[in-house]
Amino acid sequence: MDKKITVPGEVSFVAGLLLISFAISLMVIAGFGISTISSLPYVLSCIFNQISFGIWNPIFQICLLCLLLAITKRFKSGYVISVVLSVLFGLIINFFMHAVAGLPTEYWQRLLYFIAGYLFMCVAIALMVGSKIPLMIIDTFLNDLTIHFHVTYRRIKTLFDIICVVLSVILSMVFLGHLEGVGIGTVIMACITGLGVHVVNTTLSKVIIIKPWSRWLGERVK
Hints:
- With 222 residues, the protein is mainly alpha-helical.
- The chain contains 9 helices and 2 strands; from the N terminus they run E-H-H-H-H-H-H-H-H-E-H.
- It has helices at 9-30, 36-47, 53-72, 78-100, 107-130, 137-149, 153-176, 184-205, 215-220, and strands at residues 5-8, 208-211.
């Protein structure tokens, strides 16, 4: 029997961070709508375009962290790492947004961008969650609210997605006069991303084991 390959959680997380940033950038240029979580920062970047899409991401996530602290009244040291990771995430998104800006945008090419973005996103989420190190603020926000309110993760995630999409639609129509960042792709992502991540997780678990190098980092997520 072949032995599984051990991959450091830190490497897994960084790979996932790069992949998900690239995936989001591809979906933006595809123009079919992006993930529910990214839709609100993207709309805000279109309305207040003095601040880039990448920078709106950590601003949005830090606001979520403030809301989480107000609700739970509990601070964990892992939150500091999550803030740093969120800022890094925003900077990486800005890099990839510039990198893909010159890509051709025929319909069939945009369709390929969306499909590639979806696949990259599924792999990225599987790598980041499997890393067992402090998650992004959005993940921490959803996980900690699930624990605080003693409800299922699916219920919290569904409610959060609905709120993000509704706010994105309202802000788009009021300030831009048309939908921006929300489309058929957003609906598709909401319906099948969970399935895609599950398939990737199942496949990866057969060949690799992800373990953090740093025990300290692993404990910060608790």
